[in-house]
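hey team, just a heads up i'm posting the complex here instead of the shared drive bc the drive is being weird again. everything in one block, sequence lines first with there labels, then the predicted structure for the whole assembly after. its two chains so it's a bit long, scroll down
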Amino acid sequence: MELAQLKSLEADPQLVLARFSPCGKWLLGASYDARVRRWEATADDWAEKPSIDGHGGWVTALAFAAAGERLYSGDSWGQLRCSNYAAAEKPAPLWSVPAAHDGWLREIAVSPDGARIATCGIDKRIRVWAAADGAKQLDFALGDGPAFVPRNGSLDGDAACLRFTADGKSLIVADLKGQIELWELDGLKRGRKFDAGVLFKYDRLQDVGGVRCLAVDAGFQWLAVGGTIPKNGGSVTGVPTALVFDFATGELKHTLSFGQTTDCYVSDLAFHPRGFLVATTCGTPGSGQLIVHKPGDKEPLFSTKKMANCQSVALHPDGERLAVVATNSGSNGNGRPLTKDGAYVTNRSPVVIWKLPA
Amino acid sequence: MTSPQLCRPWEHAWSRRRFLGTAAAATAAATAGLSGGLSDGLSGGGAAGLGPWLNPAIAGQVEQKRKQVVFIWLDGGMSQLESWDPKPGTLFGGPFRAIPTSVPGVHVSELLPKSARQMHHLAVVRSICTKDNSHSAGVARIQRGDPKNRGVTYPYFGSAVAKLLGPGPNNLPPYVWIKPGSGGFIHQDAGFLGPKFGALAFGDGKPPENMLRPESLTDADDDERNALRAAANRRYANRRRPTVNDASSYVYDTARTLMKRQDLFDTSKFDPKDVERYGTHELGRHMLQARKMLEAGVTFVKVNSYGWDTHGDNFNGHLSLACRFDQPFAALIEDLAAREMLDHTLVIAMSEFGRTPRINGHVGRDHWPEAWSVAMAGCGLKRGAVIGETNDVGTWVKSPEFDIGHLFHTWFRCLGIDSKKVEYDNRGQPLPLAHDDCQVIQDVLA
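-- predicted structure starts here --
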């Protein structure tokens, strides 16, 4: 398989992630400067439109309603917002919850019927909201209930990723210790577990790794999680790894290793409708990969190291394009690297659009 | 093939025999005249002697209550932006918020909620600007105070304090170092002061293997055994320079003192409430042990934490690192204040540098000596003070910059030592205690 690079957009400062809208006409980026960047598809290009403002810290999570041009966005200060992402001018919020979480909101999931959204944050809470108006419906923690077995101190229960199941009745919740559980929302009962403990290491004082991204295929046959098999904390090195579980049984079926310890994290994952996984990696500055891999195969269908420090990958709904948030080269350096005119500047995120073969 | 630069396992193994053996090493070093040997000389003061360790020259400057120091070293570089100098909502500010502290108008990172509640005891300098952005040079340069180069190796701050203040009346070692990993007698810290003033390091806070006196050995037998050793020492000393025997005896005496202080090492007997308050993790245990050491009268306690070099995944890294610093640091400050020990105990928490404002592609921050922060408390420092200021985005210092030399002068002042008058006497070579061109940071003094 060969992918062709179509276009590279530029975001300054960096983006946490980017996602295509369900209609495919918009590409939205979650930025370090509290904005949601918007690019609209034109006949042969992408044109940047006024950003969605009003967040604090970093915008850290984006999710779309399946219909209705609604974007749910979350930030590192805990705010959850709903906006019309396709508004011609600067979109005003349809509703917002300023303190949906006490701090960093990690991820947003939308229920299959679009009626509910779920969020998780570093306050260790998982919350379910009415998609229509942001009214809180459920609030619980991974630590709730007698079955919870804490590991290694204070960050236990720090959920990083979540998804609704196909019937919308349960949440798949993965945390930064490599624990993945199903939670049945009616009565908050724990269900099946998936063990991704290899993605976590307690190194000196530091919790390293955990589940950093999660994807399920359209038929809910496979659950894939990404992260690293950590070697050490501090600068953090480890082998970027995706674990693919049989969703029905919880059995680990495939362990996909995507490089060396300097390649570090699988930063994002997506299942393509044709059954293969698309993954990005982000390692020591300069190292990043885009990988297309069919679970069960020994070798990837495609991989490239052309982009540095890939933060996210998004599939276009047409199944023919994808967008990778990467990082400019030379992003690191001790001391005071200055531009020729003496400025100390931020790093940037090239957003690279790729075309998949038919 | 083993790299000659890598240390070997046996270099970290430590036992009573090995510990006592360092006496021989100290002796040998002194005999060979390494880096100034064991000269006890200081000049510049003028007071009567207060025991064999406290130099008469500075005794008059030391206040009636004994000064002590606890020095918390966060090796690798804590991010100032994720700790004492947050810039939320700015270009380089990162994802975290700032929170109010017990001092109105002063904010710190949300990763330090417990320390925020102790801010009224703290003095934070946010305008540190140092020279070195590498660990290999930076750690030693900072801990030695980065004085002007005079062809000698300056002592680490702990060794300097051991030299200047001595061990105190209980004769516990004046400079102990609680650290992860292995322990040992780290004579290199002492530089030209000579091996006697090195650090006695307790790996994971544990005493040397077999250090504690066996229960089967009675006091009388132990005294008899030590009398025999003392006699042998005297015979040995008669044929050598006094300073040589001084170092040798010091190590033995220290060992003997420690043998009687099992309470400092038996963590199972620590108050469970304290253990919970400080945290059951490594740094929590070590900081609690540091408090015990201070209470026992140790002059200088250094506590190390490693793993702060967050070039990658800085923000998730600081989420766990900073909270595991915050908990025991706040507990220590609270306890020292409650025991009225903060009046005479200087608390310092710092790294070799801060971290870059710019966030690299690995979502990390690199090394940044240009504008960073040091947190301190006690011993004549202002309480609830923030000194100095960085610009709006945290890239540069916009108030007067302070180098490590300024901090050394300030710390010596807190300890009752006028570093502009007192000098080391390195076998006739007068050497200033700290960088000649730096001064006390007056604004931080109470």
